[in-house]
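DM from R.C. (forwarded with permission)

"hey, sorry to bug you on a friday — could you get me a structure for this? deadline for the figure draft is monday and I only need the backbone to look sensible"
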Amino acid sequence: MDTEVASELRDAPSPTRRRVLARRVARVAWFAILGVALFFALRERWVEVRTELATLDGSRLWLAMVAGVAGVGASSGIWHYMLGGVGEPLPLGVSLRIFFVGQIGKYVPGAVWPAVTQAALAREHGVAPRATVSAATLFLWVHLVTGTALAVTVLALTGRLPLLTVLTVPVLAALLMPTVLGWALRLLLRLTRRRRLRQLPDGRHLLPAVGWAVAMWVCYGVHLQLLSWAVDDPISLPSAAGVFAVGWVVGFVLLIAPAGVGPREAAIVALLPLGQGTALLIALVSRLMMTVADAVWAGLTALNLQRLNRSRR
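My reply, with the result:
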């Protein structure tokens, strides 16, 4: 570890036994808060749709669940490569654990908790907080740019936007160029008076991250399409992927409730070429499945960490 990063991580003297115990208690308390927030999010989503679920095609619901879990899993590839892009590569298992456990923070009111949790977990592996926050910012940026490009393309080709709006897609693609991202990150760090990163993302990191983003949007599109099949009112895969992307972008921009609850569903209902009642049911079931997917991945990666710790001891 270089001197600069070490000085950032070593902002207090060597911890005493009492201080270590206090940190452990604080960590347990925070993870308990995350667990409670996730539980209430799951319960609220379940109450919304439990009656209607019995009327849907069960096999297609399970396939939609699998596609949703795969999409959430693919999103971790963006995080993993962005963390490596800022000069803090971690083993895949450790990286996934930090990402998925941190993602539960989005169910706590306030938009900063995923990044705060991820920074605290990554710090234990020698990663400077500024690097983790930068990786989290890039993760969201790749989501936002690729999702907007997909949404604009689908809406323009289906006649919901003027066809000329597809000309904005190359402009959006330029926002993922290493030079543009590097300039933006340097400016952000300068404004927040943080030290420079070890390195900035280049094509070796951005291309795989965009590839994982494409895989993620495809999985989400399959997920929404399978839900439309489950209600016996099918839509095409491009339309499903575009609608989900619009919902994600709207939920991100209008972050009124935790995890974008509300605006995302409203956008999906408005854009699905289905009846309003059917579209609302699909949006609510989709939200329930995405919440379950977050819980599944967080549980699996946390379990793997416990096994790793036992093997080390």
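R.C.: lifesaver. The chain has twelve helices and no strands.
me: no worries. Residues 3-312 form one domain.
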